[in-house]
Amino acid sequence: MPGAIYAEGLVKTFGDVRALDGVDIDVPEGTVLGLLGPNGAGKTTAVRVLTTLLRPDRGRAEVAGIDVLERPDDVRRAIGLSGQFAAVDEYLTGRENLTMVGRLYQMGAKEAKARAGELLDRFHLADAGDRPAKTYSGGMRRRLDLAAALVVSPPVMFMDEPTTGLDPRNRQQLWDVIQELVAGGTTLLLTTQYLEEADHLAHDICVVDHGRVIARGTSDQLKAQTGGERVEVVVHTPEQLGTADEVLRGFGKGASKIEPHTRKITVPVTGGAKLLAEVIRELDLRGVEMDDVGLRRPTLDDVFISLTGHAAETPAEGEGEGAGAGDGDGTADGDAAAAGAAGRGRGRRKRGKKAADQGGERRAAREAAK
Ligand SMILES: Nc1ncnc2c1ncn2[C@@H]1O[C@H](COP(=O)(O)OP(=O)(O)OP(=O)(O)O)[C@@H](O)[C@H]1O
Ligand SMILES: [Mg+2]
């Protein structure tokens, strides 16, 4: 049986760019899928297709057992979305924003107000609750946007880079909220560029790059797939990086990674502690002074590098203009349900056109809230 979020062969092109190039997804009910990938990988595009905001060129998808293309309105009623680009209404206060969303979901005035109060407390926004959102900091907006996605407790949630821009305390706190939600039975698809986040929150991880799922599994499975351990050496001076790299490559089972700013070299190996001893002897023999040396299991970062040849958290050249609402397919335009459920997002990178498009969604939402 397909999971609570299911997609098969999704393809979406924008001109020459294949944003989705045959993506399959299956998220069992009550679990978290982490969609992990660098800028421009196709994460937001996948979320937009699954949340009915964008029609794929090919493929099909079901959310909560409902066909996304055939019954988008029903899908919208079953989901919550916190988009990558928060679109809280600047001129309303935090409390009014949340109350408005409650009203959009047919809550009574009193209930909507009470729910808004609860969420303001939960996201540490109570003190700022009666100020217009335009006076909020980036992190506060992000939290308000996430709170808005939780006004009703939909069975399926989508969060597009939920913790980007949050400070460590607020990130941790959001992780707690997410874990509570999932413990309560919510199915969640979240996108992230943070390996640590996927590691911490996701039951299953799909690594995406260039619109394709290039690996999937639990964090442990992905790490095991990358194989072996890593020898990590921190040399005493940057001048020694070259020699140390030569030595390590001699022992390595794959490409080495050099981080000049921390004077660290990492290389995949097999052979455990015995091999480590040999590496240390050889480095010593070649006169390399070491500040630190050790053996560790692969991280998700290593997985990513071995799969894609580049790090996950470094934006790829010429990409990273996140998905806009401006592709002109009109699936979401002026649709109040979509605006409430899914029209939130944040102008983190590219404000102009997006802000204008979302203005329309917000106006529709405000009308509907009256
Ligand atoms: N509306 C659009 N018009 C044209 N190209 C688009 C549009 N939306 C996305 N793209 C392109 O599709 C590709 C995938 O974009 P997408 O926003 O899905 O990436 P992402 O994985 O969410 O990246 P990020 O981590 O930067 O948010 C990118 O090359 C992007 O430029
Ligand atoms: Mg994105």
Work out the count of structural domains. Answer: 2
**Alpha plus pi helix count:** 13
Report the average pLDDT across residues: 82
| CATH architecture title of the largest domain | 3-Layer(aba) Sandwich
Radius of gyration computed on alpha carbons? 23 Å
Class derived from helix and strand content: alpha/beta
Q: Could you tell me the strand content as a percent range?
A: 15-25%
Order of helices and strands: EEEHEEHEHHHEHEHEEHEHEEHEHHH
Task: Report the CATH C-level class of the largest domain.
Answer: Alpha Beta
Give the end-to-end Cα distance, rounded to a whole number of Å: 41 Å
Bound molecules: adenosine-5'-triphosphate, magnesium ion
Q: What's the name of the CATH homologous superfamily of the largest domain? A: P-loop containing nucleotide triphosphate hydrolases
CATH topology of the largest domain, which one? Rossmann fold
- Low-pLDDT residue intervals, each spanning 5 or more residues: 314-370
Explain how this protein is built.
- The chain is an alpha/beta fold and 370 residues long.
- It folds into two domains: 5-222 and 316-369, Rossmann fold; 228-297, Alpha-Beta Plaits (2-Layer Sandwich), CATH 3.30.70.100.
- It is built from 13 helices and 14 strands.
- Strand 12 (257-259) and strand 13 form a beta hairpin.
- Helix 3 (94-104) packs across helix 13, helix 8 (219-226) crosses helix 11 and helix 12 crosses helix 13 (352-369).
- The longest helix is centred in the last third of the chain and has 18 residues, at 352-369.
- The two termini are 41 Å apart.
- The structure holds adenosine-5'-triphosphate and magnesium ion (MG).
- Residues 321-331 have a biased composition (Gly residues).
- Belongs to the ABC transporter superfamily. Drug exporter-1 (DrugE1) (TC 3.A.1.105) family.
- It holds the Pfam family DrrA1-3_C.
- Residues 354-370 have a biased composition (Basic and acidic residues).
